[in-house]
Write a structure and sequence with these properties.
Blueprint (H helix, E strand, L loop, with lengths): L4 E2 L7 E5 L23 H15 L6 E2 L9 E3 L12 E4 L5 E6 L3 E7 L2 E7 L1 H6 L1 H11 L8 E4 L9 E3 H10 L7 E3 L5 E4 L1 H11 L4 E4 L14 H6 L8 E6 L2
Parallel strand pairs: 3-6, 4-5, 9-13
Antiparallel strand pairs: 1-2, 2-14, 5-8, 6-14, 7-8, 7-9, 10-12, 11-12
Length: 250
């Protein structure tokens, strides 16, 4: 049976932005926790990954998710991993291989073009340092045309939920003073609300792709459907689950 999941209208390849529903995990991880780096029972996470792979129509071994490090690095993948690589973007032209990324506030981005797909994990650091552009370039090396790539952003912490300090904002302004438009005043002095989804949208637009779709879903604000690192921290919970988003070239 297919797991509950979200899809983008513009992504033609088989894909899923999985919610937290339909899994085997308990407690703060209930129920579809895809994070092997969490403290959840390993057998529960593996069962959750098996269910995700089944929904995507691939073998469990063919759902590949990297060891994410908030980097700008993208890896071209031709076969299932022997050991998880440390990177935040994946691209492939191999049919039947599902590329996945995890998130619990960070942007999970899926890319599709004829004959090539990609996936990227973009928190503020990855988005600022170029993981989106690196994924597009990797897809080009596999034969994709930049102006044929469709990009979709799944559940991500929203602009009304992401409060940051002054130094955080200053780092973005040092990169480009025009980034000020992604920050709004917070109720707390010296703090700001950061619009990560819109910043990701800017980086996608600058990459010159065919189109961008933002599902417009706030992980922090929707506890029933999504895990959130920041929400778990504010609630002083001991840990948090990870959402998975994945795409497969049929």
């Amino acid at each position: 049976m297919s797991l509950p999941h979200l899809t983008a209208r513009t992504i033609g390849a088989r894909h899923a932005f999985f919610t937290r529903a339909g899994g085997a995990s308990q407690g703060v991880y209930a129920s579809l926790n895809g994070g092997v780096g969490s403290n959840d029972a390993r057998e529960s996470v593996l069962e959750n990954r098996r269910r995700m792979a089944q929904t995507l129509g691939v073998a469990q071994t063919h759902l590949v998710v990297p060891f994410q490090i908030h980097s700008p690095d993208c890896l071209i993948v031709e076969a299932p991993f022997v050991e998880r690589p440390r990177c935040d973007g994946l691209a492939t032209a191999t049919r039947g291989l599902a590329l996945g990324v995890t998130g619990a506030d960070c942007g999970m981005i899926l890319f599709a073009a004829p004959g090539v797909v990609g996936a990227a994990h973009a928190g503020w650091k990855g988005a600022l340092t170029g993981v989106i552009e690196a994924t597009v370039r990797a897809m080009e090396r596999l034969g994709a045309r930049r102006d044929a790539i469709q990009v979709a952003l799944g559940p991500t912490i929203g602009a009304r939920s992401y409060e940051v300090g002054g130094e955080f904002r200053a780092q973005f302004l040092r990169d480009d003073a025009r980034h000020a438009r992604f920050f709004a005043p917070s109720a707390r002095a010296g703090h700001f609300m950061f619009d990560l989804p819109s910043f990701i949208g800017l980086r996608v637009e600058r990459a010159g792709v065919a189109g961008f779709e933002n599902l417009g879903l706030d992980t922090y604000a929707d506890a029933d459907r999504f895990f959130s690192y920041r929400r778990a921290t504010h609630r002083m919970e001991p840990d948090y689950g990870r959402l998975v988003s994945a795409i497969v070239l049929e």
